[in-house]
């Protein structure tokens, strides 16, 4: 069970693929969020059961009814939020596997009867892989992904890529406005790439924050070649990301979507530790001010703080300079 969010279900998909590779005869049911299902829905040999968080208690009742005839050998409770813990009560299982004490929050331990092994300073993806270790699934040298996309989505993306040639993607909006970089600095990096003859397109979801962020960037530059914000399905976005030379994004889903298809990511971080939540294969490309932010706020280095500690403030992303991002772009170019 992993309901949300897009980035986290991308990490969970690597776990699912690992189980399928080594134990192909295992029957897998994935309880997943409504939006996240739209990206994962074509993964083979998986029974998806969708939970819509907007339904609240009614959704839990519906889930309980759907799974009433099934008692699973193992339930992987891979989310510690209280709402997710409550959702897990609708699922019958002999073994209810949850996080270790250090990573357990919001009464998570009450809803499980077995715990994974502690893993200090683990990336979220590695934390999910700890569940496979607890089950005895053989290890892989590195995570692998197989997330099939609609044929019409891949055809659409191929057409866009053919028209654009080599291009980069900026997905500028995180789930909260305070985690977004400044529009004028996004414009600055777009202008820089334009000077290098690398076209830039904007991508993002249909939400108001995504659209407002894109509009603010467009007010500072006329060098954006295409604005796809709110205009793609998740499958179209994933397919387009696969064609991109690289992606620039804050702590948001498309950064992790890029990882699943092997597209490099320049991640922009201030509030959360990129060692824990950054783009898994591109931590060396992250531009982060997290370390200095938590040192300022807590008087301690990140190593001395509880894992998962967030820096707080509405203006922390302003600490990320345009020059620091330009330097990472130059490395990739």
TrEMBL record:
The keyword Glycosyltransferase applies. Keywords: Glycosyltransferase, Transferase. InterPro entries: Glyco_trans_9 (IPR002201), LPS_LOS_Heptosyltrfase (IPR051199). Gene3D superfamilies: Glycogen Phosphorylase B. This is Glycosyltransferase family 9 protein. It comes from Alteromonas aquimaris.
């Amino acid at each position: 069970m992993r309901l949300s969010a897009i980035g986290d279900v991308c990490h969970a998909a690597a776990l699912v693929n690992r189980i399928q590779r080594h134990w192909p005869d295992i029957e897998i049911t994935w309880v997943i969020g409504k939006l996240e299902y739209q990206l994962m829905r074509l993964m083979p040999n998986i029974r998806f059961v969708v939970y819509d968080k907007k339904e609240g208690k009614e959704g839990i009742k519906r889930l309980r009814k759907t799974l009433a005839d099934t008692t699973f050998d193992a339930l992987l409770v891979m989310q510690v939020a209280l709402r997710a813990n409550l959702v897990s009560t609708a699922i019958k299982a002999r073994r209810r596997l949850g996080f270790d004490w250090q990573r357990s929050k919001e009464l998570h331990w009450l809803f499980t009867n077995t715990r994974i092994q502690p893993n200090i300073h683990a990336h979220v993806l590695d934390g999910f892989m700890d569940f496979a270790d607890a089950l005895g699934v053989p290890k892989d040298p590195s995570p692998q992904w197989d997330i099939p996309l609609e044929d019409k989505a891949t055809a659409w993306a191929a057409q866009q890529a053919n028209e654009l040639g080599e291009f980069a993607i900026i997905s500028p909006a995180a789930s909260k406005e305070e985690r977004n970089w400044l529009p004028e600095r996004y414009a600055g990096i777009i202008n820089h790439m334009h000077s290098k003859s690398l076209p830039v397109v904007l991508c993002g979801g249909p939400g108001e924050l995504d659209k407002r962020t894109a509009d603010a960037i467009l007010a500072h530059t006329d060098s954006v070649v295409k604005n796809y914000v709110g205009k793609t399905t998740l499958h179209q976005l994933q397919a387009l990301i696969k064609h991109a030379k690289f992606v620039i994004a804050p702590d948001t889903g498309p950064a992790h979507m890029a990882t699943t298809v092997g597209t490099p990511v320049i991640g922009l971080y201030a509030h959360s530790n990129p060692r824990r939540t950054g783009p898994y294969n591109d931590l060396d490309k992250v531009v982060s001010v997290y370390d200095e932010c938590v040192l300022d706020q807590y008087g301690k280095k990140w190593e001395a703080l509880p894992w998962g500690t967030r820096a707080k403030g509405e203006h922390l992303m302003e600490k990320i300079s345009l020059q620091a991002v330009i330097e990472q772009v130059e490395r990739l170019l």
